[in-house]
Amino acid sequence: MTEFRDQDLSGSRFERVNLRDSAFSEVDLTGAKLRASDFDDATIRGTSLHRTRLLGVELVDVEIYGELQNVQVNGVDIGPLVEAELNRRMPERAKMHPADAEGFRAAWAILERLWEDTVERARTFPEEALHRSVNDEWSFIQTLRHLNFATAAWVGRMILGNPSPWHPLDLPWDEAPGWEGIPWDREARPSLDEVLAVRAARQTTVRDVLASLTDTQLASSVSQTAPGWPVLEGFPFKDCLHIVLNEEWEHRLYTERDLALLELAT
């Protein structure tokens, strides 16, 4: 098997080349042109497709999970259609985009209630199953570890100003570049109770921030310039909380989906 690592192949031309079952990681395809290419059974994960044009394609039996903004299919922007349908199926989803302090408190209460039910469902599985990946996604326990990381980053570091709010079990996203001083042990196998203890503390932190939250705070901005992640100046306070709400909502849906598949496998 040929390997290409840390090479500049920009401007290369591939014609009648067999790349079946190849793996691409941290590959820059900006401005690439693909014609008469076969992507059957391909998996594309954690990838930016901004301003991508797909012309004359066949999309059959395709699954797409991601953020849709100005995505036109046959001249129709499908983003608003998908949003409306998801909100129809899950009315509480529409409450995950609050505009005022009271709305954020209500949204967080919904998330805590929903996650309580999800954790209760997870406890019906053997703990070994909670470490099991489904379709190359994170395991249930890894998902909780990632949510702990997200809360530490956007609430502990950005809102509360702690430059290093991390716990050794925190888990960044898989495509993260990595940073000195931020834990990233994807293969750790802590117990569910260990991870839930960290999560309970992080949830309490969010609850405390929201308890005293005002609309004036929501209209303000926050900055964090210490080494690590995130490093942002003048970032909207409200957006930090929106990111946390989105992470909590979406990852709970992923875990419910994967728990259902684990049930079918047993």
UniProtKB/TrEMBL annotation:
Q: Which domain of life is it from?
A: Bacteria
Q: What is this protein called?
A: Pentapeptide repeat protein
Q: Where is the DinB-like domain?
A: 111-253
Q: Which InterPro entries match?
A: 5peptide_repeat, DinB-like, DinB/YfiT-like
Provide the species name: Kribbella voronezhensis
Tell me the leader sequence span: none
